[in-house]
Amino acid sequence: MDRKYNPFHMAQEQFDSAADFLQLEPAAREFLRNPMREYHFTVPVRMEDGSVKVFRAFRIQHNDAMGPAKGGIRFHPQETADTVRALSMWMTWKCAVIGIPLGGAKGGVICDPHDLSSREQECLCRGYVRQLSRDIGPLRDVPAPDVMTSAQHMLWMMDEYEAIHASKYPGVITGKPVSMGGSLGRTESTGFGVVYTLREALKLLNIRPTDATASIQGFGNVAQYAARLFCQLGGTVTCVSCWDQQDSTSYAYRKADGIDLDEMLSITDRFGGIDKNKAADEGYERLPGDAWLEQDVDVLMPCALENQIRGDNVESISQRVKVISEGANGPTTPEADDRLEERGVFVIPDLLANAGGVTCSYFEQVQSNANYYWEKDEVLGKLDVMMTSAFIDVSDLAQKNDLFMRDATYAIAVNRVVEACRGRGWF
């Protein structure tokens, strides 16, 4: 990751732009530019070799005016406090723009789960919850999985929370296994949400999905389901990229006539890494990892990490590209945004495009607290309605005020949070 890049400064810059548009008073600006609460702590874990390793961890709650804080927990070797701060702020706006009664939070542990045994990961999860057992809960702050965490990690965390509090709290965490209170449709939700909003954008641009091609960065859960639904709509994915753990680099894999999703999944590990030798055997062209951005396609879907479309590479995007649907959080910098706006590229911002995950997490939270669960079709149907409604709200405001989609998204989200804070008498 570029060490000069600071995601929190980027998040604040995006907020400042919305604050200027909304003409917010100084108190509101100062209050919402920074998190309400931060927890920085360490988690000691006894490793398989008998040694003890200490992991740095974070939980940051940006704002809970709209409801209990909500946000994932990342396990990543390059995690930083500023990354978590940015993600917690983006979660606040994401919940607000989609219209669910939740605030924004985020968590992270500086680690690489590739290098940890299952037992070590379980100890890390339980230690993380022990440090936060008084500061999370179904009515306070509800974590969820994120980069390199899974349903199993969430189950260990829920079990530890319930052991500490000597009761059953299935709503304390989301992204759980379906057999233990998770929601059907949760696995698909983020990737499907990316394509629900993409479908609406293509309608606005008079592009038929059957005529559209796409290149996707990442091949984890979000990218896989985004690719699946896009193909189900008749679109063609010609290129995907992923991180190669063995080589510590990324590669892009391309087939001009479109990837075979099931074939690609059969050679993909649980972290979204593609076996390069098997890909070659199946006839995929292997390219440098950033080649996904240069493909001559109609749609780009960044579904990996932040800071991927920047001022130094935005010009490599093909003139054919009409839409960028941001499955990742913060993948496009403000400098690149300016250039994309000049070119007339329709950007579906992360706060809107990837809100399917938190929306379905909200559904899971409701189901867990009520101890009543819905069928998958009902979950995905509700998700489609909410994502489509939010897209229409944003696109209508953008067209009415001649705004870039990101600016319209922020305007709606920030205004809703400000009104909640004012209603509570916070400023």
Summarize the structure.
This protein is α/β, with parallel strands linked by helices and 427 residues long. The protein has helices at residues 7-22, 26-32, 81-98, 118-132, 151-165, 186-204, 221-232, 261-265, 276-281, 334-343, 350-353, 356-370, 376-401, 405-424; strands at 37-46, 52-63, 69-76, 103-110, 141-145, 213-217, 236-244, 249-254, 285-288, 299-302, 323-325, 346-348.
Number of strands: 12
Low-confidence stretches: none
Taking all residues together, what is the mean pLDDT? 95
Structural class estimated from helices and strands: alpha/beta
Rg value: 21 Å
- CATH-assigned homologous superfamily of the largest domain: NAD(P)-binding Rossmann-like Domain
Strand order of the largest sheet: 9-8-7-6-10-11-12
Biggest sheet layout: 7 strands, mixed
Provide structural commentary.
The protein is of the alpha/beta class and 427 residues long. The protein has two domains: 32-183, 3-Layer(aba) Sandwich (Rossmann fold); 187-348, Rossmann fold (3-Layer(aba) Sandwich), CATH 3.40.50. It has 14 helices and twelve strands. It has helices spanning 7-22, 26-32, 81-98, 118-132, 151-165, 186-204, 221-232, 261-265, 276-281, 334-343, 350-353, 356-370, 376-401, 405-424, and strands at residues 37-46, 52-63, 69-76, 103-110, 141-145, 213-217, 236-244, 249-254, 285-288, 299-302, 323-325, 346-348. The strands form two sheets. The chain has a seven-stranded mixed beta sheet, sandwiched between helices. The chain has a five-stranded mixed beta sheet with strand order 1-2-4-3-5, with helices on both faces. Strand 1 and strand 2 form a beta hairpin. Helix 6 packs parallel to helix 13 (376-401). The longest helix has 26 residues, at 376-401.
